[in-house]
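Need a sequence for this fold. Nothing fancy.
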């Protein structure tokens, strides 16, 4: 027997001895009132009752020492059965949870087959009124019954039931109040255990949620101590949660160098939401790019912080690679545009399979331009000088063709061929071609001064139906146009003297009014038997070129 239990037993014996001594004194006394007082005192002071009260008070302490509902119920019932000298006990809660206990432990239950009368416990739970020693003939009747409600404030949450088949009148009148007080303590203990169980369940639920979140979650208490570091945060930073939880927020600064400053800014600005993308590093030293979002986290102790961490390292690397690829593609397209028509390059970039051999009939204005007499003059110059002059001329010529939305088809020697129309035919193709030819003469005149070399060009223009498309073989093809207008424009260029522009009738009719002086003439074109009607535009500045810009 433990020391406290021995002391309680000794107290009961001392009280009994003291009462017996008083009775003996009273019997020898002639004072009737003294004898009556002693008898009343002996009747009211029951040593067994005092012992029960003290043991139940001790039991209440033990019950309140646990925060597990099942443990509270089991301990409370075992103590009640033991203290009240019952043979069997039952605690029933409204939620259906119940615990049964027997005097002498589980072994005693083998010979105690009758189930506790549910009608008693149900009545007590519904009415909230205690029941003692009722006569229920519907079941084998215990000789002594005590059932009191478990009450929390105004709510009855269950009942404590005790009985005995062997002893009649086991529960004294004073036991009612004693058991009611004990039941109240048990009810409070159950309520506290339930609250703790609910909080623990909620914490477990929150933990499961945090662990399931793909983003890292780190929470800080108001004293800036790390309280949560979920699995995703462990994965992101490569450090176990156990090494972070409980540490100061300064620990995060070793992983996120800018974090201390951001956290100070967060609190200094009233703990409003803060979002930033910063550099970070894993525990092994490898670099990261993360996005962090800080939000206030309220508690009884004050305002803490919740930080959501998103690892965007891979995403940013993909974006950088994508930007580099786009820049590379742009450079490739720009480079190829120097060799191929821009629309051909664009088609190749968008859909390489779309480029196939073949063409379609379209209306076009052809432009041929050639440096007259350059072959004989170039024979007198070093090759480097020839290249310099030609490149300077072509730079100007190509600029003019593009300025008027023409398509440079090809270079041939010191000449070039341009197309106004395909692949995107417009009504003003001929007008733009004429304007480009005039502007080209003007540019060449100015270029002569800078090169200090006499340049004279002749231009031929012709309009008609052509077949535009990809010609050649599946291994090597060019985008170009084929048709009589091509041959006619080339012939007119050959027939035109230096500084002149020869146009066919179709081009002049489509171009409309040309303010620069011109005259109608018959030109002999190589390869044609009959003379060709042409229009010669004289080498003077034209208002048409200025208007068409």
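Here you go.
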């Amino acid at each position: 027997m433990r020391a406290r239990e021995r002391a309680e037993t000794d107290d009961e014996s001392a009280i009994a001895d003291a009462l017996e001594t008083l009775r003996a004194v009273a019997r020898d006394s002639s004072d009737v009132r003294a004898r009556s007082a002693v008898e009343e005192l002996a009747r009211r002071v029951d040593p067994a009752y005092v012992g029960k009260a003290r043991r139940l008070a001790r039991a209440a302490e033990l019950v309140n020492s646990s925060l597990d509902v099942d443990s509270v119920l089991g301990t409370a019932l075992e103590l009640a059965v033991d203290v009240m000298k019952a043979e069997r006990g039952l605690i029933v809660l409204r939620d259906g949870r119940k615990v049964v206990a027997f005097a002498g432990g589980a072994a005693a239950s083998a010979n105690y087959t009758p189930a506790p009368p549910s009608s008693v416990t149900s009545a007590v739970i519904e009415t909230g009124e205690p029941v003692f020693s009722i006569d229920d003939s519907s079941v084998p009747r215990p000789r002594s019954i005590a059932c009191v409600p478990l009450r929390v404030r105004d709510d009855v949450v269950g009942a404590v039931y005790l009985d005995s088949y062997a002893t009649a009148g086991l529960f004294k009148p004073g036991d009612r109040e004693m058991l009611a007080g004990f039941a109240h303590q048990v009810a409070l203990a159950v309520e506290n255990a339930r609250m703790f169980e609910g909080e623990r369940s909620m914490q477990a639920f929150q933990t499961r949620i945090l662990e399931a979140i793909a983003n890292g979650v780190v929470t800080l208490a108001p004293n800036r101590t790390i309280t949560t570091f979920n699995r995703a945060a462990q994965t992101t930073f490569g450090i176990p949660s156990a090494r972070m939880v409980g540490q100061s927020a300064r620990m995060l600064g070793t992983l996120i160098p800018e974090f201390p400053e951001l956290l100070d800014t967060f609190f200094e600005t009233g703990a409003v939401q803060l979002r930033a993308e910063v550099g970070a590093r894993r525990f092994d030293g490898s670099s990261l790019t993360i996005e962090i979002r800080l939000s206030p986290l309220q508690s009884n102790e004050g305002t803490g912080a919740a930080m959501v961490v998103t690892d965007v390292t891979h995403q940013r690397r993909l974006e950088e690679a994508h930007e580099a690829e786009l820049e590379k593609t742009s450079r490739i397209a720009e480079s190829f545009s120097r060799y191929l028509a821009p629309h051909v390059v664009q088609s190749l970039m968008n859909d390489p399979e779309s480029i196939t051999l073949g063409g379609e009939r379209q209306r076009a204005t052809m432009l041929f331009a050639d440096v007259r007499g350059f072959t004989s003059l170039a024979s007198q110059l070093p090759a480097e000088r020839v290249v310099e002059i030609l490149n300077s001329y072509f730079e100007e010529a190509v600029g003019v063709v593009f300025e008027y939305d023409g398509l440079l088809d090809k270079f041939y020697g010191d000449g070039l061929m341009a197309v106004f129309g395909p692949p995107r035919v417009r009504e003003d193709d001929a007008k733009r071609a004429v304007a480009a030819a005039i502007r080209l003469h003007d540019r060449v005149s100015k270029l002569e001064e800078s090169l200090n070399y006499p340049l004279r060009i002749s231009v031929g223009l012709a309009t008609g139906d052509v077949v535009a498309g990809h010609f050649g073989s599946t291994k090597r093809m060019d985008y170009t146009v084929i048709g009589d207008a091509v041959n006619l424009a080339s012939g007119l260029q050959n027939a035109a003297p230096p500084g002149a522009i020869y146009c066919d009738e179709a081009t002049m009719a489509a171009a409309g009014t040309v303010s620069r002086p011109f005259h109608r003439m018959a030109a002999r074109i190589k390869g044609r038997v009959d003379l060709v009607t042409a229009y010669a535009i004289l080498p003077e500045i034209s208002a048409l070129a200025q208007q068409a810009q």
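For context: The chain has four domains: 1-45, 62-195, 213-311, 356-547.
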